Amino acid sequence: MADTFQMAGLQVLLVPLLLFSAALSVGLIVVARRSREESGVREFTFLMLAAATWSGAHALQFTASDLGWMMLWRTVGYVGHNLVPVGFLVFMLTYTGYSEWVTRRTVALLAAEPLFVAVVLTPTNSLHNLIYAEVGVEQVASMAILARSFGPWYWVNTTYNYVLVTAGLILCLRMALESRQHYRLQGTALLAGAVPAFAANVAWVLGLTAIDYTPLTLGFLGVVWGIALFRYRLLDLVPVARDTVLDNIRDGYVVLDDQFRIVDLNPAARDVLDDPDDALGRPVVEAFPACADFLDRTDSGTESRDELVVDDGDSKRYFDAELTTLRDARITGRLLLLRDITGRRSVEQWYRTLTEQSTDIVTVTDAEGRISYQSPSAERVLGYDAADLVGTPLVDLVHPDDRMAVQERFPDWGSTEEDAVEYRIEAADGTWRWIESRGRNLLDDPTVGGIVVNSREITERKHHEQDLERKNDRLDRFATLVSHDLRNPLTVIDGRLEFAEETGDPEHFAAISNAVERMERLIDDMLTLARQGAVVGDPSPVDPVPVVQDAWAHTGTADATIRLEPLPDTVVADPDRLRELFENLFRNAVEHGGSEVTVAVGTVEVCADAAGTSPDTTGLYVADDGPGLPDDADVFEHGFTTSDGGTGFGLSIVADIVDAHGWTITGTECEDLAGARFEVTGVETTTDPTTAGETANPESEPSHSN
């Protein structure tokens, strides 16, 4: 009586526990479905649904009153029994990062045999006895259970299910051992729930227990997995398998042993190797020769990084290579990471080609204005090697007169729309070139970290602008000549003709003649300015003595005297314009000093050292003993004259000729002759002077005096 009560008590205990296990599985399904569409939710739902079916049917089997009902619930429970291993493996594949294997086709193939056994073979067992060799009821004390007598296919099905469960346990164990702390706790919880259920089923199959407690342990699995679901966010934070990550990253990795032999690599690295199918075990320099120099430069035990170039037939591939030492308890090898930067290099090369081939000069300076990058176009435009300019302050190349404008604009370059500045910059040959620059302050941009200056040579344009300015100036002078200076002689002629007609006095004709002569001089000067302006031909070495003598002969000098002081052997000049220069200076001397003026021509000596011991002949002078120069007056200004008969354009023509040659002219008092002295400096001369004696009134053709 006692045994019957004990067994009846066990039956009363098992049924509620099995129903609780089924209800717990259903509850976990509800909770999982609320976790949005996270990875693994569908697979987890499938597994819990199979577990609930198995546990619920097993509970109803214990309440059945005859063999028919017991077989019915056994058949229903067998559906869940056979789908739990499938669901367990599918969930573990998804959870450990092999979700690409979980397809409808894969799941259908995995579930084909279990469903065939549960749906086809088990209900029709009476026809073939493949699942149960004998169907009956055993009495364990007073508790009725199905007799355990298995057919041949039962063992096939059980073996298949155990293979699926074992595969899932291996995946979970591997993830738990290799993952970080959080995922390791997740994996431990999964193992803690799955292993007892697997062990209970093995014990029953082997006959170690009379009752199959596997469905009951599924309730324990549900409790433990519920803790993992809430405590460790089982379905919110699903780990990704290491192999999946490494196989799918775009960067190549090659694991090397301490002899630099390849022991592992991913598909991205295989795409780089010469013979990827035979790479394992080979020295990396044989499979990937491009890294040979890189490895030779790498010291043992250190990390290094460099750029590698791989010749890929018609094109080249660029890789950012990084070698890292792998350390555990001891040094076990090295990891070679290969990041394909071909696309980035192509873009950089495109921009570099544009910069290098551009006619504009691209300069990058630091905050202090020192050049940190100079484009190669600087060599074509200015003659400098780009590398030689790096580190040079930009303003050091700017003309002294223009530095202030550049320095004032520099800090705020690019802050306004009017950010262009024009200035002169010294070329490698010592000449000055006009440059127009626009800047952009990119000091805060980490990819640039400097001030970018785009410059364009505008020397020719500036010359055109200066020529146009001179032409406009000459037009103003012509307007003055026409409107004022020419009108005066015409007024004299008109008035004198009227008086001559009335009186017949010959003195009126002399005045008319003088007025006509003045008009001729004005027209000559006007034509000189109009035809030649400040233009010179190709300068060449010229003997100045014949030029001076020819100019004196073609000037109306009357009783004037010329005195030739020692002159250079040669001066570099346009001979025709040089003769015009002397002619106008001689006319000016006669015009203001009178017909008996004395004119001296000689060499200007400028001392090369502070002590004055090393003279350097760099110019010429023309002096006279006339009244000298007026105080505080610009005698070279167009139209300025102190003579009633002067045109005011002689000295301005001289200034144009001097400026066109690049020389400098100044007017001073002459200490020797006590008159005016004009010095032209900056003239390229030879050092041996020629001395000539005093010459009085050289014969000349009639010429208009100034």
Automatic annotation (TrEMBL):
Residues 419-470 form the PAC domain. GO terms for molecular function: phosphorelay sensor kinase activity. PROSITE patterns: HIS_KIN, PAC, PAS. It is an enzyme of class 2 (transferase). The chain crosses the membrane at residues 12-32, 44-64, 76-95, 107-124, 159-177, 189-207. Residues 683-696 have a biased composition (Low complexity). This is histidine kinase. It catalyses: ATP + protein L-histidine = ADP + protein N-phospho-L-histidine. Its EC number is 2.7.13.3. InterPro entries: HATPase_C_sf, HATPase_dom, His_kinase_dom, HisK_dim/P_dom, HisK_dim/P_sf, HisKA_7TM, PAC, PAS.
